[in-house]
Design brief:
about 325 residues, single chain, about 0% strand, mainly alpha
Length: about 325
């Protein structure tokens, strides 16, 4: 004789607390996905709006005859006007990058692998603080402190190594492209250092301990484990700093005597200028086609900066295929 046992039906998801949390979680996922998608679309719309504005306002300058833009371009034509500015922008930014990247790598290694923990924490806060200083402050520092400080050094370089073109023709005060590059290097160094420091701190501890266990010194461990792991991050940080240097305005305007030449005289004043500094200097007194010409130079700077960032992403993605880093 068998007794009939009551069959228990499973609880419905709608009636259980677990089911309620699941619906809440699904709603949160959809809400978060919608907000994230909206943010991504917003930045694309903003970027497209900036590009469209620059292209529309710059079009009259591209289509104008050389005679129409002669006054605005000092008789050189549009491309003859923008070429020295683009060269000065790239030259000052390249000088800044050459100075800033090795120093940033050294500072980041010291903070992440050599400094005591308390000192490393204080230096990290200091680096983050330097990254937030406005560029006009760096310009004032360059004018009031850096120029008088390095003027004797540049004068000695010009008198001793003046047979090399890049050191020839120094004239005090030091309002040349080398001084502008040094100021830009000081400006971009905190950003590069902070990024590289975070990359070095992400190196797997197991890799470092394995290298040390095989008898490597600390420097050999850094060379074998830390630097290879951080290559992609170093490149990304460098391109980030280069992007800021390319678009810097006030600091360059305050420390550089402007010129429209294409040469490598680093110590001569009045040889180079940058696109951003030229726009800031000329825009308040410009009107008509002269404004269109300045906006067209801004479009060239926009394309240049976009190309630099695109190149950085391509390099990082290419390296990630080999070492698995991102």
């Amino acid at each position: 004789m068998t007794s009939a046992t009551p069959r228990l039906s499973p609880p419905s998801p709608a009636s259980s607390g677990l089911g309620g949390e699941s619906r809440s979680g699904r709603f949160g996922n959809r809400l978060f996905a919608a907000i994230s998608t909206g943010a991504g679309v917003t930045i694309l719309i903003a970027l497209a709006a900036v590009a469209a504005f620059l292209l529309v306002r710059a079009w009259p300058a591209f289509t104008a005859s050389p005679g129409e833009v002669a006054d605005a371009t000092q008789g050189a034509g549009f491309w003859g006007y923008v070429a020295p500015l683009a060269f000065g922008t790239v030259l000052s930014s390249a000088i800044a990058l050459v100075i800033a990247v090795p120093l940033s790598i050294g500072i980041a290694l010291f903070i992440s692998h050599y400094a005591p923990r308390r000192l490393a924490s204080g230096l990290g806060y200091l680096i983050d603080l330097l990254a937030a200083i406005p560029s006009v402050v760096f310009g004032l520092w360059g004018m009031a402190f850096l120029q008088p400080l390095i003027s004797p050094v540049l004068e000695w370089l010009s008198s001793t190594l003046g047979f090399i073109p890049i050191f020839a023709g120094y004239q005090a005060p030091a309002r040349n492209v080398l001084t502008a590059g040094i100021v830009l290097a000081v400006m971009i160094m905190p950003i590069i250092t902070a990024t590289i420091r975070e990359v070095f701190l992400q190196v797997p501890r197991l890799h470092e301990e394995a290298s040390l266990a095989l008898g490597a010194t600390r420097w050999e461990m850094i060379r074998q484990a830390v630097l290879p792991f951080g290559k992609s991050g170093i490149i990304s940080a460098s391109m980030l700093g280069l992007g800021r240097a390319l678009g810097e305005t006030m600091a360059v305007l305050m420390v550089l005597s402007p010129g429209f030449a294409i040469n490598f005289f680093l110590l001569k004043p009045g040889q180079h200028s940058s696109i951003a500094a030229n726009i800031a200097a000329q825009f308040p007194e410009s009107s008509g086609i002269a404004v269109d010409v300045l906006i067209a130079t801004g479009l060239i700077l926009f394309i240049l900066t976009f190309a630099v960032n695109l190149l950085a992403r391509w390099i990082v993605a290419r390296r990630a295929q080999f070492d698995g880093a991102n």
